[in-house]
Amino acid sequence: MHTSSANLRSTEIEIIKIIEAASRVESRGLLVGPGDDCALVRPPEGEDLLLTKDCMVEGVHFSTDYFSPEAVGRRLAVANLSDIGASGGRSIWALLGLGFDPKRPISYYARLIDGLLGALKEDNVALAGGDTVASPRGIFLSLTLIGKTPKGRSISRRGARPGDVILSSGSLGGSHAGLLALTQKLTTSIPYPMMRCLKKLHICPQYPKGLGEALLEADCVTSAIDSSDGLAKDLRHIGEMSGVRCILYKEKIPIPRPARYLARIMGMRPYELALRGGEDFALIWTTPSERLKEARRIASSLGHRAFEIGRIEAGSGLFLEDSHGLQKEVLEYGYTHK
Amino acid sequence: MHTSSANLRSTEIEIIKIIEAASRVESRGLLVGPGDDCALVRPPEGEDLLLTKDCMVEGVHFSTDYFSPEAVGRRLAVANLSDIGASGGRSIWALLGLGFDPKRPISYYARLIDGLLGALKEDNVALAGGDTVASPRGIFLSLTLIGKTPKGRSISRRGARPGDVILSSGSLGGSHAGLLALTQKLTTSIPYPMMRCLKKLHICPQYPKGLGEALLEADCVTSAIDSSDGLAKDLRHIGEMSGVRCILYKEKIPIPRPARYLARIMGMRPYELALRGGEDFALIWTTPSERLKEARRIASSLGHRAFEIGRIEAGSGLFLEDSHGLQKEVLEYGYTHK
């Protein structure tokens, strides 16, 4: 259809120029980069490739009210880097689909691309190409990331076994608490330092760089997922795909202090934030108990945590266990049986 | 941010189920398909990979007024397959980013996916994964396609040389004429059979399957591009990136008869439709004149045409030449000097 006027076209060309200028990263495997019909890349010998794609939509995954353009770009990169990491791989090339809203100035997109490419460069990922199109009803972003992993080796969601320990590389529920704080107008009821911390947890999530790859190499991981949809949904994926039961230790889920504070204000239980939340981009993984010590050593050597949050048993379903050993089943979307 | 309610989530899950059920294509290189954090693929030995991405936005690239959902999906596939083809490759894997508008019924997306996967399957492309997200302000689609090509060999836009012939695998301007017919309310002034043909040219474009790959293998191509942005812009890319001048033969541009008819009604010159139009997805390529006969033979053996539409000279710029040898320079977006 292409209703794009000459004006839209010139915006598009400006944005493409910014992307091309910013994306000149040396990458041995990238033979032809942005500017042709396709990028041409040479896959590393003896390795398999991991493919992932994550989209972000204005008004659904981010609001321009409290996300800076740099933070939007950075979050898009982190969501994708986290997926490749959770599969045990190392990211190499990216393709960006950008739907730009022509009502925003070019400088907005320059800043967004700066945030995106900054985060990609930290991981030595080259932007190989993409597509820039007008999207007058709001920005959308679609990033494809291609990573590598030794032939025949990757972490899937299918490998958890009874006796395995469930670990998390970071705290959980913080991003969701941050979103609630920002959208439920709780700004005045939360002390400023806590509010600042909550905002940061939502807007500027971290992912445990290099951890999946190192755990896979050291045979310290049987299954993994990144915490993007909330612990309940994420662990249910692992449980169903591995054919096992997941037991979560209610008191051991690492929830940031400001998130606990917010839960109290809102009359929620802190663990509900972790179960229903998501987008923390911590690595949730399972390790055979005899490899637990080594897994902890690896995480620590990379500067990441390894919280023991549960165990795998034979059976099915997801259960929350308190310190007295009492269990409750966790239902869809993180609600528990009363 | 994820404002997605349980309702949106269940729509998302339904759509993902449809995609997963429909995408079970046997593909030797696809080790892990949809359902994990990443897809895992084994790149074919001794080959390089081509990467491309094409986005489509409701209201910009297609209107649901006259595009069936199947046609939307099919067009997305064709736009991407055409890019891999123009680089001389063969498509293998796809990743779909789908922003669904929850106001449309699930059946709409089932039909869209059917059109997309049908077109991908015709070319033995496996859907390896993707991301499905809510997009309440209108549908967007982002397809990433990964293809293969023999190591170190691909067609770029940089290789055209003085003396080369410019060829087109199909007629041009038809898709743009179809769009004008549909949007300028010309339905009553165009005879029905012509209108039907114009609609089809816009809604259901064809691309020359296998042609780029065969021309590359036979050393019959120095540069190529798919006709997606209009002949003026597309040839300007080739001219600028190859550092040459492109001469187009005004009377020899193959314009479908209904498009010529529409041009007359609208007071345009038919060639303007081809110059400014686009989205015909024909292959535009250059061949050394001594390889012209072989190039024609290859195109014909695959059931495609090979219209001789111009030549390459030393210099720069894009010129339109009439049958008397008179030349006019073609300016930005297909307008000519008066």
Automatic annotation (TrEMBL), chains A, B:
It comes from the Bacteria. Residues 161-320 form the PurM-like C-terminal domain. This is Thiamine-monophosphate kinase. Mg(2+) 4 binds at residues 37, 52, 83. HAMAP family: TMP_kinase. Pathway: Cofactor biosynthesis; thiamine diphosphate biosynthesis; thiamine diphosphate from thiamine phosphate: step 1/1. The gene is thiL. It catalyses: thiamine phosphate + ATP = thiamine diphosphate + ADP. Keywords: ATP-binding, Kinase, Magnesium, Metal-binding, Nucleotide-binding, Thiamine biosynthesis, Transferase. Residues 35-148 form the PurM-like N-terminal domain. InterPro entries: PurM-like_C_dom, PurM-like_C_sf, PurM-like_N, PurM-like_N_sf, ThiL-like. The lineage of its organism: Bacteria, Pseudomonadati, Thermodesulfobacteriota, Dissulfuribacteria, Dissulfuribacterales.
